[in-house]
Automatic annotation (TrEMBL):
<dbReference type="Pfam" id="PF01656">
    <property type="entry name" value="CbiA"/>
</dbReference>
<feature type="domain" description="CobB/CobQ-like glutamine amidotransferase">
    <location>
        <begin position="257"/>
        <end position="423"/>
    </location>
</feature>
<dbReference type="InterPro" id="IPR011698">
    <property type="entry name" value="GATase_3"/>
</dbReference>
<dbReference type="InterPro" id="IPR004459">
    <property type="entry name" value="CobQ_synth"/>
</dbReference>
<feature type="domain" description="CobQ/CobB/MinD/ParA nucleotide binding">
    <location>
        <begin position="6"/>
        <end position="230"/>
    </location>
</feature>
<comment type="function">
    <text>Catalyzes amidations at positions B, D, E, and G on adenosylcobyrinic A,C-diamide. NH(2) groups are provided by glutamine, and one molecule of ATP is hydrogenolyzed for each amidation.</text>
</comment>
<dbReference type="InterPro" id="IPR047045">
    <property type="entry name" value="CobQ_N"/>
</dbReference>
<comment type="pathway">
    <text>Cofactor biosynthesis; adenosylcobalamin biosynthesis.</text>
</comment>
<feature type="active site" description="Nucleophile">
    <location>
        <position position="333"/>
    </location>
</feature>
<dbReference type="InterPro" id="IPR033949">
    <property type="entry name" value="CobQ_GATase1"/>
</dbReference>
<dbReference type="InterPro" id="IPR027417">
    <property type="entry name" value="P-loop_NTPase"/>
</dbReference>
<dbReference type="InterPro" id="IPR029062">
    <property type="entry name" value="Class_I_gatase-like"/>
</dbReference>
<dbReference type="InterPro" id="IPR002586">
    <property type="entry name" value="CobQ/CobB/MinD/ParA_Nub-bd_dom"/>
</dbReference>
<keyword id="KW-0315">Glutamine amidotransferase</keyword>
<protein>
    <recommendedName>
        <fullName>Cobyric acid synthase</fullName>
    </recommendedName>
</protein>
<dbReference type="GO" id="GO:0015420">
    <property type="term" value="F:ABC-type vitamin B12 transporter activity"/>
</dbReference>
<dbReference type="Pfam" id="PF07685">
    <property type="entry name" value="GATase_3"/>
</dbReference>
Length: 491
C-alpha cells in the first residue's frame, strides 16, 4: 500500500502523539514500511539521532514504534521556547536562530519549503507516512502561516483525522467547532474523528456519535479507552498534570521516593520515565521546599532557561532547601549547571556571570554552538549510552568523576540525558542512593526499560487494532478523503 495520513487534535495533549505512534506500530506489525512525521514541533523534550540531529522526543518514540532509527526528516522544524515570547528554531536537527513570536513569521515560507522537502523524502522512501499535527488545526489566528496542520494537509493532499480528549469534557463541541471554523478548502481534508481517553460504556456514547456523524457528514473511526501508564516520551509538560498524585501517600522502608523539581522551563523530563517504571520507586514532580522533606532523591532536570529557572529556584526557597540537603541530589544537564559554583551565560539569557548553587566544583560557560552527541561510557562498572543537548560547557575542578560530570558526597551531576534508561547503571545508581538515604530498597534485577517501552508501544498498537475501524483507516490512507459536506460557520 501507499499513502499518508495527518493526525490532528482538538487541543494540545489530546493524544495526537500516542495515536500516531499506535497507528505506526499497528501498520508495522502488518508489514507496512511506515514512517512518522511532524513538520513543526514546539517541545522542550528532544532527542539526538545517530547522526547528531536534534528532533522532538515524541517523534523518536514514534520511529521506534515503526521499527526505525529516528531521522531529522521526521521532525524538520523544532521550536524550543526559552521564554513566553522567544524560541530557538532548530532546522533539520541544528539550531538556526532565536526569534520572538513576530519574527518567526518572516521565516514561515522558508521553513514550509524545508518541511515539505522532508515530507517528500519520507513519502518516497516509505510506503506510508503518518503525520502528527500541532496544537489544533482550528487555531485560526495562526492559519495563514500554518506549517503543521491544514497548511500541510493542503500542500501535500493529506486526509485528516481529528483526535479529541473526551476526559476533558466537551469533546463533541470541540469536534464540530474544529471543522466549522475551517474554510471550505481545509474542511475538504477532514475525514473524521477519533475519541480518545474514554472511561465507561461505549454504548452511552453512541447517540452523540450518531449525531456528530449526521451534523458533520464525517466518519467516527473509533473510541480509544483510557489506558494508564502511557505517559512515556510525552511531548510537553501538560502531560505531567495527568500523572497520578502521590503526595501524602505513606510508603515503607522498601520504597524509594524521588522528587523531581518542576522547573518553569523544564526540558527532557522524559529522563525520569525509567525511574517511574522501576518497581518500588515513586516519582513525583514538586514545586515547593516542603515537598522535598521526605524525598530520598531530588532530581534537578534539564531546562531551556537555566539562569531564569535558577532564579525561580531561589525565589521559591527551593534553592536553600537543596543546599541544606544531606540526602542525594542529581542534576541532569541544565540541573547540573545550576549545581555549579558559577555560570557565565552570554548566549541563552545574556545574564553574564551568575552565581550557581555551589553544590559541585564546576564552572559553566555557555557556548554559541550547541553540543549534540550520543556519548557512551561506564559508571559503577556498568556500560552507559546516552545523548547530549546543551550550550553550557562544564569545567570540573574537583570531586569524583560521574559519567561526564562529577559528584561530591551525595550530589551528582551529568550532562547526559537518557543515562537512567541503561538498566545496569540505573540499578547500581539507585542502590547507591538507597544506601545513602538509609532505605531498604533493592532494585528489581529483571526490570528492562527497553522491554517496558516496547510493551507500551505494543499496547498502543493493540488499542488501534481493537478499537479503531482499521479497514476504514486503510482506505483513508490509500485513497484520501472522499466528498464531505461544507459546514458554514454558525450553521
Amino acid at each position: 500500500m501507499k499513502g499518508a495520513l495527518l493526525v490532528a487534535g482538538t487541543t494540545s495533549d489530546a493524544g495526537k502523539s500516542v495515536v500516531t505512534a499506535g497507528i505506526c506500530r499497528w501498520l508495522a506489525r502488518q508489514g507496512v514500511r511506515v514512517a512518522p512525521y511532524k513538520a513543526q514541533n514546539m517541545s522542550l523534550n528532544s532527542f539526538v539521532t545517530a547522526d547528531g540531529a536534534e528532533i522532538g522526543r515524541a517523534q523518536a518514540m514514534q520511529a521506534q514504534a515503526a521499527g526505525l532509527e529516528p531521522l531529522a526528516d521526521m521532525n524538520p522544524i523544532l521550536l524550543k521556547p526559552g521564554s513566553d515570547r522567544r524560541s530557538q528554531v532548530v532546522l533539520m536537527g541544528r539550531p538556526l536562530t532565536d526569534v520572538d513570536a513576530m519574527e518567526y513569521g518572516a521565516l514561515k515560507d522558508f521553513l514550509r519549503e524545508k518541511a515539505l522537502e522532508s515530507f517528500e523524502r519520507l513519502r518516497s522512501a516509505y510506503d506510508v507516512v503518518i503525520c502528527e499535527g500541532a496544537g489544533s488545526p482550528a487555531e485560526i489566528n495562526l492559519r495563514r502561516g500554518d506549517i503543521a496542520n491544514m497548511g500541510l494537509a493542503r500542500a501535500a493532499g493529506l486526509p485528516v483525522v481529528v483526535v479529541g480528549d473526551i476526559d476533558r469534557g466537551g469533546v463533541f463541541a470541540a469536534f464540530y467547532g474544529t471543522v466549522a471554523l475551517l474554510d471550505r478548502e481545509d474542511q475538504a481534508h477532514i475525514a473524521g474523528f477519533v475519541v480518545n481517553k474514554f472511561r465507561g460504556a461505549v454504548e452511552l456514547l453512541e447517540p452523540g456519535l450518531d449525531t456528530l456523524r449526521g451534523l458533520t457528514g464525517r466518519e467516527v473511526y473509533g473510541v480509544l479507552p483510557w489506558l494508564e501508564g502511557l505517559w512515556l516520551d510525552v511531548e510537553d509538560s501538560l502531560a505531567l498534570d495527568n500523572r497520578p498524585a502521590v503526595t501524602g501517600t505513606p510508603y515503607g522502608r522498601q520504597t524509594l521516593r524521588v522528587a523531581v523539581v518542576r522547573l518553569p522551563r523544564v526540558s527532557n523530563f522524559t529522563d525520569l520515565d525509567a525511574l517511574a517504571g522501576e518497581p518500588g520507586v515513586v516519582v513525583r514532580f514538586v514545586t515547593t521546599p516542603a515537598e522535598l522533606d521526605d524525598a530520598d532523591l531530588v532530581v534537578l532536570p534539564g531546562s531551556r532557561a537555566t539562569v531564569a529557572d535558577l532564579a525561580w529556584l531561589r525565589s521559591t526557597g527551593l534553592a536553600d532547601a537543596l543546599v541544606a540537603r544531606e540526602l542525594p541530589v542529581l542534576g541532569i544537564c541544565g540541573g547540573y549547571q545550576m549545581l555549579a559554583r558559577e555560570i557565565v551565560d552570554e548566549v541563552e539569557s545574556g545574564a553574564g556571570l551568575v552565581k550557581g548553587l555551589g553544590m559541585l566544583p564546576v564552572h559553566v560557560t555557555f557556548a554559541r554552538d550547541k553540543r549534540l552527541a550520543r556519548p557512551t561510557g561506564e559508571e559503577y562498572g556498568q556500560p552507559v549510552s546516552a545523548y547530549e543537548i546543551h550550550h553550557g560547557v562544564a569545567t570540573v575542578e574537583g570531586g569524583e568523576p560521574f559519567l561526564d560530570g562529577c559528584r561530591v558526597g551525595a550530589v551528582y551531576g551529568t550532562t547526559w540525558h537518557g543515562a537512567l534508561e541503561n538498566d545496569g547503571f540505573r540499578r547500581a545508581f539507585l542502590t547507591d542512593v538507597a544506601a545513602r538515604a538509609g532505605r531498604d530498597f533493592v532494585p528489581a534485577p529483571a526490570t528492562s526499560f527497553a522491554a517496558l517501552r516496547e510493551a507500551r508501544l505494543d499496547a498502543l498498537g493493540d488499542l488501534v487494532e481493537r478499537h479503531l475501524d482499521t479497514e476504514a483507516l486503510l482506505r483513508l490512507i490509500e485513497n484520501g478523503t472522499g466528498p464531505v459536506p461544507f459546514l458554514p460557520p454558525g450553521a
